[in-house]
């Protein structure tokens, strides 16, 4: 089995999603703690500019976005499956909805002045302002719409009541019977809400949801050891990018293999990564780039919610 290296920080909701994915799989991994805001020099040396958290490194291959990280972990260890047979489309669609729509509600509620104010008050004023500026830049330029706190407060009860009703009536302990990526994609948003005492009752006061949430958090994080950023870069430097399965390749219309391209998220965190398009299939885009410190690196992105463009 390959050595799995997660670049993350503990307060990130999507990093919690990745940690639960690793725990669900019962995998061992190495933990590299990255800064919560730019600059992130060691991370961007690996990714070529992609800045969102988390990132999974396997040697000289880097996997961006938890949607693709989930699929990489399924390839690493098939059982238990994150995408159960016969439910591949429905659990992936639900996970995508949770990572976008439910996440929008969580962000809107967390970033209310009455909640962020006390958090930021513990920081020096210049650090607090830098954090807010960083998050403003992160959510600028993409397609992810921003909800107001008022909208989120109005709409969240609808989402929670629907979930509660399904859990009450469904067979089994999870959203679609067997546990899947859908459960983890929803639960990490609730973990984010529960990180704030003012918002925790939204989950805790609904017994069916609270019990389901506890079951998902029970997957744990697997087993991990700390690793420094420099050690992770050294691992990338000494490794060769993985050979790609050409029999599954699915070309990108209008772009030849080896052509210079940029790839960027379309929702938020839209920083482009430049390199050569060396592979794509139905789920992923792979760009090969060269770093002066690390040599050849392959950066993997999901095909959905990312844009690949011929370099100008």
From TrEMBL:
InterPro entries documented for this protein: Glutathione-S-Trfase_C_sf, Glutathione_S-Trfase_N, Thioredoxin-like_sf
Chain segments annotated as coiled-coil in the UniProt record: none
Residue stretches making up the GST N-terminal domain: 2-81
Superkingdom, natural source: Bacteria
UniProt-listed Pfam families: GST_C_2, GST_N_3
Protein name per UniProt: Glutathione S-transferase
